[in-house]
Amino acid sequence: MPASASATVGSALAILKAQPLWACHRSADVAQFQFGKRRASGKPSDLGDYALHVRCPWRVLRKNRILVGSDDLFFPAGYNSGMEPPPDFDWQRQPNRLDKLRLALFTPGRPVLSVRKIEVGLAGSFRLLFDDKMALEVFPASSRRVEHWRLLARQAGEPLFVLTGAEPE
Questions:
Q1: pTM for the full predicted model
Q2: Helix, strand or coil for residue 14?
Q3: How far apart are CA 36 and CA 47, in angstroms?
Q4: Closest CA to 60 of 110, 10, 9, 1
Q5: Quick one: what percent of the chain has pLDDT higher than 90?
Q6: How far is Cα 64 from Cα 137, in angstroms, rounded to an integer?
């Protein structure tokens, strides 16, 4: 893993301290969290000064309640916990729960979340803490040598940091 030390992960994420998180976009199964100043991009959605692209499990919490998480992608938008998801549900073509919940969380007019504290865990996991007892948790859950998450700066044009799976022993 190129970035195995918690200090390295913490140093990379430090740039997000005090930055506002104002959007979460999605490209296939990759969540794209937008931080910093909102910039018109000419694309369907605006982009931030910084973007956190997450391919591993993640969730947004308030206190002890999960508001939205990466696994919500695989359930229909109208799903409730008492139902079995339809066997023919296609999250790529049909409305899904993740999109419904993330859009509700990041609708214009809602308070913008600012990163107050960054907690780094093991194996590239971390928690960004915001006001109102909210948090974004990212936790790589695969030993494969794949990309788990990356941090980009719009000005640099290249990733500031990429976290991948464990190096072979």
A1: 0.87
A2: helix
A3: 9
A4: 110
A5: 57
A6: 12
